[in-house]
Fold this protein.
Amino acid sequence: MKGISITDAELEVMKILWDATEGLTTGEVKNRLDRSWERTTVLTLLTRLCEKGAVSAEKTGRSFLYKSLVKKEEYGLSKTQGILNSIYNGSVKSMVAALYSGGDLTKEDLRELRAFLEKGSE
């Protein structure tokens, strides 16, 4: 996963592919997006993702089926580690403190985080 840089627009396409149980055509991706992008725009994004190694394209008849080659969890971990290292100098405590002080963590989030940390320390 290291080395793959995905733009915000490409990420929207990746989210569609991650939610799919099988390969999708350009038209199917376009129809599932919450944007009114032209088919050519979606095709351009899919092509770029293929070139980056994030997506595969399999020719079936007259069209291509696109599938994610990168797992959502793998991408999320890579992005999170990047933020952790570049902004918080690798300090998980500082990152969680920033989320907490920003009001982004609910009481339920804190309960789940405590349970996760306690389970991890066993």
Remarks:
- The chain has a mean pLDDT of 92.
- Strands lie at 55-60, 63-68.
- The first strand starts at residue 55 and ends at 60.
- The helical segments are 8-19, 26-32, 39-51, 72-88, 92-101, 107-120.
